[in-house]
Amino acid sequence: MSEPMQDVVVVGAGIVGAAIAHELSRNELAVTLLDREAEAGFGTSKANSGIIHGGHHTDTDTLKGRLEWVGNQLWDPLCDELGFGFARVGELTVALTEADLPALDHLIENAEEKDIGGVEVWSRDRICAAEPQVTRGVIAGVFSPHTAVVNPYEAVFGLVEAAVANNVRLRTLSPVTDLHHDGDTWTVTTPSATFATRFVVNAAGLGAAAIAHMAGVDGFEIRGRKGEEYLLDKRLRHLVRRVIYPCPTPLSKGTLVIPTYDGTIMVGPTAEEVDDPDDVTTTTAGESTAFAGARRLVPSLSERDVIAQFAGTRATIRGDDFLIGPTEAPGFVNVAGIQSPGLTAAPAIARYVADLLRHGGLEMPPKPLLNMIERPVHFASLTTEQQRTLADTDERYRRIVCRCEFVTEGEVGDAIERGATTVDGLKFRTRAGMGRCQGGFCATRCIELLSADLGIEMSEVTKRGPGSWLVLDRPDDEVMIEPEAP
Amino acid sequence: MIDDRPHVLLPNYDVVVAGGGPAGLGAAVAAREAGAERVLVVDREAEAGGILLQCIHSGFGLHHLGEELTGPEYAQRILENALDDGVDVLTNAYLLDIDNDQNLKLLSADHGVAILDTEATVLAMGARERTRAAIRIPGRRPAGIFTAGAAQRLVNLNGVLPGRRVVILGSGDIGLIMARRLTLEGVEVAGVFELMPHANGLSRNIVQCLHDFDIPLHLSTTVVEIHGRDRIDKVTVAPVDAQMKPVLDKAWDVPCDTLLVSVGLIPENELSRELRLRLDPVTSGPIVSSTMETSRDGVFACGNVVHIHDLVDFVSAEAELAGGHAGRFALGARPPHDNVRLQPGKNVAYCVPHTVTTDQPHTVYMRVRKPLEKSMLRLRDAEGDIVHERRLRYVVPAEMVTLKLRPGVLDGFQGDALQVEVVPR
Amino acid sequence: MTNDERTTYAYLCIGCPLGCRLEVDEDSHGDIVEIRGSSCRKGDRYAEQEHTDPRRGVTTTVAIDGGLWPRLPVKTSGEIPKDRVLAACEVLRRVRIEAPVEMGDVIVHDLLGTGCDVVATRDMARMT
Ligand SMILES: Cc1cc2nc3c(=O)[nH]c(=O)nc-3n(C[C@H](O)[C@H](O)[C@H](O)COP(=O)(O)OP(=O)(O)OC[C@H]3O[C@@H](n4cnc5c(N)ncnc54)[C@H](O)[C@@H]3O)c2cc1C
Ligand SMILES: Cc1cc2nc3c(=O)[nH]c(=O)nc-3n(C[C@H](O)[C@H](O)[C@H](O)COP(=O)(O)OP(=O)(O)OC[C@H]3O[C@@H](n4cnc5c(N)ncnc54)[C@H](O)[C@@H]3O)c2cc1C
Ligand code: SF4
Fold it and tell me: Which pTM value belongs to this model?
């Protein structure tokens, strides 16, 4: 199938591609966003620590160091517009030994250099009072009010939905297999369609080197750096209130203790170079490393409280900086090596890329009027009165699907209307299945609802796309029989 | 067995029962029989009956009803019984919240958000299954990992199959029953793997669910890694040493497309936590008195929400007790408080109820930690003197031990705590 | 003739949690000559039955249209020979009925000539 001429094709619908598409959708442009997975955000952007870093952990002499703080400041308006889970909880980097103290000084210097206000040194007593679960062995710390936690998958879905509402075309299950430039126009090939476009933005994460290679642009290689994360039972809510960082050593950034937006405590990430970028296994060794590190900060943490674990892979390139810019291939822009803090920086990356395209000759007349999306309902956090009103007007809000997270059938139905096609897609949009029973109870309901709403058999519903089938139909021929009373 | 009478929700009830399984329905009937007028059972499912509706095998009711029924038959009996007795049953209704004044917040398919007031509440929310992550198997997270109970629901209610070749982790009764169930549906069961050196299920299920179909049971063996990108394609299993640590150089791979995890149930205590009830860290259920009252006045509990039962018969017995007392509480009865605490001693994991009186008969349920062949159950006072003892034949952790305390037994006992132990004879 | 040519068969007793390991010795005529390993009479009786004529009650589901669920739980009205269990399920896998059904309704008469009927183990009303 051939599609109409596009101004920009963005390859990769992770947080970076989604932010770029969203940024471009404010203008009169024909934009297509492609991803190989069944839904947006199913790459690294769903599997990370979900922290909007404060900006003072990176130096100013790198691109990522500059975009991190700019990105941090752009999250509040996005959250207002799209309604994803986001909270500026603040952070504490804690020093446990004298040897850690220079690292704290360095954080303060970075903050001053970037003109980040409010970053301050806290004494042991102040830390102990504010975060009683932090080790008594702490000697000092640096506090920043700017650090936030976010539900990264919700942010991706929100960005994509708003982009689509403003005429961006989203094509999932569309792996780019070939790129060709005829001196004027790019042809982007996927198994189901080809796209003609003037500009191609390569935001393919772990696949970025392969995409660049298709465009005839070489010169960088992506290395995977896996990180494991461990989520703990909600019972431990408020164990810490701020993100707790150890002082980084030259060898490692260390494991953090993270109070997620949804109130669970998360421990991670680890950092391990992997040969297979697809390797997202969790390991016994990774678990030990994560908990050993985290327990140095918060001694009461225990593996026994783990309710879920996952791993994500950072796409790194040599030099460990972001690689963003035009290439020798005309109209082909790389946005590669977007490792941590790529989530934080994504909104800044989006603006940066829009500027690059403008400088590359793409005219971008702003749209006079933008379509706004409706913020998703989160039933559990409504007041009783609001719940009553909603339940009275729409009876789908009278049935609970996920009992751990109190997700209603209405929220699940809404998520399907907004584009969820898989059980994981529902989980990341509504939290159904994310609680302590991890879908034991509601996965079946989610399969039933996807089957009913999408008009497909239960056996056609998948966890996260082709190959990840969940149940099978019974194979038998059946004969009709009349029952008889005894 | 759906009750399709229209329901009118009253603003206040004598007794509201949360959960319409055997515990909840039994308690409601007992509350009515104790004289409570307005008794309501709420259940979040489309029909009352609880977990029994998906347990289509037989093995229910031998003690309580004197005949062996299947789960659905038992459920239908007790539901009919409750409806005949004038209990109101509201299904598709989720109890969201209880406050300290026993105002209940319901989300009901028929009534939307409703607030009810009640004199007494019975918690009978049952249990949920422990999950894979709770036991932390490393590896990937492909599709094809189910808890045994979720698979049971898929097969028995939804009529779909979880896969073609299944590995079962855990030899508890639910896992064993599912091994047979899947075999009968034409699914291949590659084996059952059990961490402990002994099977956790009844020997009847070992014989009739595994031996009958030549399904191998691997004791002292566990799943150490899950493989597969989109769907499971194999698991790695390994024997464990005496410290339960996997011996990885003896590991082997088992090809399969499905892993069923059957590693036990845990009381469903979200609401109990909201209510700040005192919980027993061993059972994960509320601490209850001999009237099945929790640490909050007028809030009773019974069934799997208190501790995990292997026999529905004991659930029903406990429910009668809880419901009867809830009914009398609603009518104003305030029996004297218990005067003796029961403390788990040697080889006893927990006792329910947690307290008793010396002047009433009681049935005490307990679980042992280790199997013993010839054993003795003893009650000791604070000085360590034996107050009461009884011979037991054979005890295993998988089967609850019951102790009937007749009033005479504690005559002359003056202390306020008894140690309960089950030790070799 | 010698009584020495015994064959030993092993069973696990299901009579109680003790789970005694039972052994049945059979002579060359196929007659039971000795039962060992039990701790009570119940075990002996079980071993004999299990050795000479093992039987099982079968519970499974059949397809149903028009009810709350697409499956209806059923059971055999009595125990059928153990070696017919899989065949019985194969037959029942091909059965489809129509709601409403009441508990106790006969779904299949005289299953595979065993003399046992297959009956519904719950009501299932017709959904409107
Ligand atoms: C464990 C861990 C913790 C982290 N914690 C943080 C944090 O706390 N804060 C922070 O700021 N950053 C963090 N990061 C980094 C952050 O997650 C990443 O920088 C960010 O998600 C990268 O987004 P992306 O859109 O570039 O990549 P991705 O989300 O991977 O998106 C790339 C997309 O491209 C698609 N794609 C690839 N190849 C093709 C193809 N050929 N055709 C079509 N589509 C294709 C993929 O399917 C994918 O959806 C963390 C990373 C990890 C691994
Ligand atoms: C797979 C399996 C096999 C078993 N096999 C046997 C056997 O062979 N023989 C035997 O005797 N016993 C068996 N048992 C044990 C016995 O059936 C259970 O112990 C018994 O069903 C527990 O009863 P209950 O009422 O406490 O819980 P449940 O039956 O679980 O009922 C609890 C009810 O509460 C509802 N509920 C929970 N929370 C809420 C809320 N907030 N609002 C509204 N409703 C709520 C639930 O939907 C459910 O219907 C088995 C159990 C299982 C799980
Ligand atoms: S032989 Fe008797 S004691 Fe032994 S398992 Fe059978 S019933 Fe129990």
Answer: 0.92
